[in-house]
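Report of the visiting student (M.T.), summer placement. My assignment was to run the structure pipeline on a short list of targets and document each run. The first record concerns VOC family protein.
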Amino acid sequence: MTVRRVVPNVRSEAGPESREFYGLLGFEEVMNLGWIMTLASSSDPAAQISFMADDRTAPVTPDLSVEVDDVDAAYAAVRESGAEIVHPLQDEEWGVRRFFVRDPNGRVVNVLGHR
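After the run finished, the structure tokens were exported:
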């Protein structure tokens, strides 16, 4: 399994202000679904940060997202390890397949793959 990117998720009600502030550092909006907005570096598109008010289809807001090349293999490995699955594996309408797992530090990780 290969990690494609890691994105911190900041719980925020200040989307426009965050976009403006991080724009000063070279970030540009690359996705905005209303409840989540992702900004990326124009020079390195994998350098990203997301801001979300709430997760629209999950019970909690994840602390970070890890995109992998095989989300089903990641899900199997995590389940086999006995780690706590916070949100089950499912396909989302915006084109990702994902699940949430709690890491040893208590952080919620959104593990995803694009379909």
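The radius of gyration is 14 Å. The domain at 3-114 is CATH 3.10.180.10 (2,3-Dihydroxybiphenyl 1,2-Dioxygenase; domain 1). I thank the supervising group for their guidance throughout the placement.
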